[in-house]
Design brief:
The protein is α/β, with parallel strands linked by helices and 349 residues long. It folds into two domains: 234 residues, Type I PLP-dependent aspartate aminotransferase-like (Major domain) (Aspartate Aminotransferase, domain 2, 3-Layer(aba) Sandwich); 92 residues, Aspartate Aminotransferase, domain 1. A seven-stranded mixed beta sheet has the order 2-8-7-6-5-3-4, with helices on both faces. Bound molecules: pyridoxal-5'-phosphate (PLP). Pyridoxal-5'-phosphate binds next to helix 3.
């Protein structure tokens, strides 16, 4: 039985080299600063992003929330896009952990209107919270990549008003690849950056928060407060190093596989592929014109060894990753054709 998982790139398991690295990693108590593997990962990450320092954290959510907690004081206001991960999928943590108010702006293709961002920056007034932070995301969890020029514009506005910018770069290497730039060319437009070692890079766990040395020193203390002092965590930093040193080039293949999947799905009558939105490893489709129920499709594909998520607002998302081969893509497309063809629900006109 096949096991093809297109639900997300978060489903990736470690490579054999990562398992090997885990068993041979040099370890120490990281709360004492004694774990050489963690130190190497943090230094390597900082260099990769062109930042002074970096910190290993358990997850992307942890890294984003730690950034907000470190940049802001309680009661500050944070300006960000209404569809960004921090607003949409982090359980309202910014209100609980940092105690900040989120000022969420509408976005068009992932971008806030720069003039609208500037207009929301608070002046001094007894009634107003302080604007403590602006957050950007690239690539978006919906697969969208925002331009370097956009990041540059928002960063310039933030600098003019002396407000820090945090970049949720969970998939910064996918974004950089899609834009044809180095990750540090995106990181330069943010004071702090979070990226994930898990997801497309296949490490089992962990993210990095990078910024100035002072910022990371403050974040390290707040990480402890959040319960994130992780002792002999070199065992997890070791696969993270393999992820950064070996896996980044493979993301290009994930992007190509997404394009292939999109192109093949587009040939199936009734399936609308949002081809212009295939910017990283994610493919979005609308099957409503087939007359086939997306939930039924999820269960029928599952019977053939293929895992996909159900529709969100009528749109289904398929995500390619390192462990999904080109043959798997053709298998998925053929299964989809078969399922639709055998259904009386399918409008074949
Ligand atoms: C853009 C973005 N930011 C943050 C996260 C959070 O990462 P984690 O699941 O490791 O908390 C995700 C997870 O998918 C994401 O897509």
């Amino acid at each position: 039985m096949k096991n093809i998982d297109l639900r997300s790139d978060t489903v990736t398991v470690p490579t054999p080299e990562m398992y090997e690295a885990m068993t041979t990693a040099k370890l120490g108590d990281d709360v004492y600063g004694d774990d050489p593997t963690v130190r190497e990962l943090e230094e390597y990450s900082a260099e990769l992003l062109g930042k002074e320092a970096a910190l290993f954290v358990p997850s992307g959510t942890f890294g984003n929330q730690l950034a907000i907690f470190t940049h802001c004081e309680r009661g500050d206001e944070v300006i960000l896009g209404e569809d960004c991960h921090i607003v949409a999928y982090e359980v309202g943590a910014a209100a609980v952990i940092a105690g900040v108010q989120l000022r969420a702006l509408p976005t068009f293709k992932g971008q806030m209107e720069p003039a609208a961002v500037e207009a929301r920056i608070r002046g001094e007034n007894i009634h107003y919270p302080k604007t403590g932070l602006i957050c950007l995301e690239n690539a978006y969890s919906n697969g969208r990549v925002v331009s370097v020029e956009y990041m540059q514009r928002i960063f310039a506005i933030a600098q003019k008003h002396n407000i820090p910018v945090h970049l949720d770069g969970a998939r910064i290497f996918n974004a950089a690849l899609s834009l044809g730039v180095e990750a540090k060319e995106l990181a330069v437009y943010a004071d702090s950056v979070m990226f994930c070692l898990s997801k497309g890079l296949c490490a089992p766990v962990g993210s990095i928060l990078a910024g100035t040395r002072d910022f990371i020193t403050a974040a390290r203390k707040k990480r402890k407060l959040m319960g994130g002092g992780m002792r002999q965590v070199g065992v997890l930093a070791a696969p993270g190093l393999v992820a950064l040193k070996k896996m980044i080039p493979h993301l290009a293949e994930d992007h190509k596989k997404a394009k292939l999947l999109g192109a093949e799905l587009a040939k199936i009558p009734g399936i609308k592929v949002f081809s212009e939105d295939i910017q990283i490893n994610m493919v979005f489709i609308d099957i409503s014109a087939t007359g086939y129920d997306p939930d039924l499709l999820v269960s029928e594909l599952y019977k053939k060894g293929i895992k996909v998520n159900g529709a969100n607002n009528g749109i289904m998302r398929f995500v390619t990753n390192y462990w999904v081969s080109r043959d798997d893509i053709y298998y998925v497309v053929n299964c989809l054709k078969e399922i639709l063809a055998s259904s009386s629900q399918y409008d074949k006109s």
